[in-house]
Specification:
It contains no helices and eleven strands. The chain is an all-beta fold and 112 residues long. Strands 2, 4, 5, 6, 9, 10 and 11 form a seven-stranded mixed β-sheet that branches. The protein has a four-stranded antiparallel β-sheet with strand order 1-3-8-7, with no helix packed on it.
Length: 112
Amino acid sequence: QVQLVESGGGLAQPGGSLRLSCAASGFTFSEYDMSWARQAPGKGLEWLAGIYNDGSDVSYVDSVKGRFTISRDNAKNTLYLQMNSLKPEDTALYYCVLTGYWGQGTQVTVSS
């Protein structure tokens, strides 16, 4: 069965960085486009970034463009999200997403 396990969240200071990882299993990772999404307290799910199955194209929501970078390693069945210049409004539960599936999420808290 599809499993997506996010890791790498934690507490960061404003302006700091974190790198999220998502270990994927139960499907042929290299054949599927993947995304990251987040849910802030009291808000709905927000799509953040997507990447083609072969990594040839990426896209971002405007609020993270230039600060976040999505990437993947198909040999390791792993999806990444490098987050730089973090802001308090980036505080949320971050999810790795395959259409119709998501993991348990990893908490990111940005605070001084």
